[in-house]
Amino acid sequence: MRVAVLAGGRTPEREVSLRSGHRVMASLNERGHDAWIVDPGEGPLVEALGERPPEVCYLALHGKEGEDGTVQRLLDLLGLPYTGTAAFDCEIAFDKLLAKDALRRAGVATPEWVAIEGWALRDLGGGAALGRVVERLGLPCVVKPSRSGSALGVGFVEREADLAAAVMAALSFSGAAVIERMVDGTEVAASFVGAPLEPLPLVEIAPKTGRYDYAARYTAGATEYFVPARISSDVSGATLDEAARAVAGLGLRDVTRVDLIVDRGDRPWVLEVNVSPGMTETSLLPMAAQVAAMDLPDLCDRILQAAAARP
Amino acid sequence: MAEFSIDRFVERYAARTSGMNASEVRALFAVASRPEVISFAGGMPFVEAIPNDEVAVVAAEVMRDLGATALQYGGGQGQLALRERLAMLMAEEGLQADPEDVVVTTGAQQALDLLGKIFIDPGDTIALEAPTYVGALGAFGAYQPRYLHVEVDADGMIVDQLEEALFRGERPTFVYTVPNFGNPSGVTMSLERRERLVALCRETGIPIIEDNPYGLLRFDDEALPCLKTLDPENVIYLGTVSKTFSPGVRVGWALGEPSVAQRLVLAKEAADLCGSNLNMLLTERWFADEDRWRGVLGGLVDTYRSRRDAMAAAIAERFPADAEITDPRGGFYLWVTLPSWFDTRAMLAAAVERRVAYVPGTAFYADGRGANQMRLAFCLPSEDRIREGIDRLGALLADEEHLFRSINP
């Protein structure tokens, strides 16, 4: 199959995306496909796809534009099939402001949260209401930009006095911030691939600093991973069920990764979902696949076939 | 169960690699280097002003006349003819140097690494300006020192602070300073401070490393004497052709007492055997034509002066009134101090979103200071781009202030 692997782009996750994309391209070529990289950060995407038309686009873009439905809508217009979730569902899943509500509506357990738009703070006097956040959620809490990936702009707040600065930092990355109650426990990732989506073994994430922030994600060796996660099979089953509910509730397809925390009482909480999970050498999904006896070429091929088979 | 440690050697690395982590700021700089972003981040010389055709002629001469030498290994100290040219460059600032005491390095950056290697044992204290050159923190950091930061004001390093620290019992292995148009401060050390620093270090037997990459990029005033001129024995001087010619040739140097030069040569040979003969010959031939190099340098200084003027004027107009900026009389950088609640590292994402970039102040301290500061390089963008970039940055600062006031009524 002729496959344009879309990777790069203009977001802070550009480098990560290029690393994902090159691994995907090499894997697909190994499976006999004709795959090449198209970097929307290097030149007009539509032109590049017109000059060398693919049968399918493999989306290895991370962050805004690549995961928020923008590129998906453009590919819909061009009539090109692409891997991963459809445009509207991407938009919901990528924006934590929307995704948290969608998860709750789907009956998924997700930590209590408050969402604040920068505009409301700037122009509606929302700052005066910020004190209620701590009343509502307690401390510590986690402040996240609503639309950003790779833990960029995420802040951990332990003292009320630090909340305002963390909100400002998150708003540097996005127009709104989501503040979550911090759940203490074991961090795990549940990955799903194929059509229909099938679960891969849970990956347990054990950052050496205790926090799975940007540095812990992308510095080789800064985090240890255990597959399957070191939790009982009952808890593991319940965790996969919770993740599957999130996947179904948000209408995700082909490939996705759900990040969860299993609290001290063995209860799983969904933190967020990813419509374009990383495929780098430090990424969780390829790790899970490997333990399921699926190497990277198998994995990429399976994702590709899921998209190609779509009517 | 499989245990994945992404890096099979993770338990094997030396402790000195512990600070070598992926970071958000690096991720943002990958976007900041895109052409649509006006970047005040990197201190990239304006190499477009170097006439490529003339360099090509020089390079062709080198290969025609000295090809066998250019393609061969050389000595660790660097070619004598080049060291004589470098002595001539130092004389431009009144520094008398014996070419025998000069060690050519791969940029002055390598000299920092080699000096770290020959001077710093783990746990040794070294004294540096606050803020200081980020590349010095990187080079010295590998040798695991403790840092003694000495603050800078409009007259350069506050020598009183160093004296107080010595009085408290601190005994730094050396003092590192960029006395002319400092990176990142843009500040120049006054003559009085130079004399005091040299005297204090002489009395206490603490060597000074004087890093002078920008000295010949002087916009107006008369050159002040080098620290090395004030105390030829106790000062190790570093220079580079990166700002007067090209950073691409990677030619820098150290000038020290013969004992220091000898150790540097041995350390250099251990590190990389020798510098690039081709680049050294090219550099030597470039500086052989006095009209040529003076002409190019004069043009560069004029360009940088105009850019400094454009940036300072735009900042005066567009930045909040309580922002403090330094007044660089040369070099590449302006240093901005904002009200204390600003967090320039967090704000960088919003800046890049608005297509403008800078370096957050925290990069220039070893101890987490500088969150409300930023370095702006005026060397590379055109005056129009500088004005546009400062417009964007000024608008961002105003919006941040508005947001801050709204959150903290």
Write the topology of this structure.
The complex is a heterodimer of chains A (311) and B (409).
Chain A: E1 2-6, H1 14-30, E2 34-38, H2 45-51, E3 56-59, H3 70-78, H4 87-94, H5 96-105, E4 113-117, H6 118-123, H7 131-137, E5 141-145, E6 155-157, H8 163-173, E7 176-181, E8 185-194, E9 198-199, E10 203-207, H9 214-218, E11 223-227, H10 233-249, E12 254-263, E13 268-274, H11 284-291, H12 296-308
Chain B: E1 2-5, H1 24-32, E2 38-39, H2 52-70, H3 80-91, E3 102-106, H4 107-119, E4 125-130, H5 134-141, E5 146-153, E6 156-157, H6 159-167, E7 175-177, H7 191-204, E8 208-211, H8 227-230, E9 235-240, E10 251-255, H9 258-272, H10 277-286, H11 290-318, E11 324-325, E12 333-337, H12 344-353, E13 356-357, E14 359-360, E15 373-377, H13 383-407
Parallel strand pairs in B: 2-13, 4-5, 4-7, 7-8, 8-9
Antiparallel strand pairs in B: 3-10, 5-6, 9-10, 11-12, 12-15, 14-15
Protein architecture, described:
The complex is a heterodimer of chains A (311) and B (409). Helix content of chain A is 38%, strand content 23%. By secondary structure, chain A is α+β, with helices and mostly antiparallel strands. Chain A is globular and about 55 Å long. The mean pLDDT of chain A is 94. With 409 residues, chain B is α/β, with parallel strands linked by helices. Helices cover 43% and strands 15% of the residues of chain B. An 8-stranded mixed beta sheet of chain B has the order 3-10-9-8-7-4-5-6, sandwiched between helices. Chain B has a 4-stranded antiparallel beta sheet with strand order 11-12-15-14. In chain B, β4, α5 (134-141) and β5 form a beta-alpha-beta unit. In chain B, α2 crosses α10 (277-286) and α4 crosses α5. Chain A binds chain B through residues 10-16, 41, 118, 121-123, 125-128, 130, 150, 152-153, 164-165, 167-169, 171-173, 203, 214-215, 217-228, 230, 281-282, 287, 290-291, and chain B through 1-7, 9-10, 13, 20-24, 27-28, 30-31, 34, 341, 343, 346-350, 352, 399-400, 402-404, 406-409. β11 of chain A pairs antiparallel with β1 of chain B, so a sheet runs across the interface.
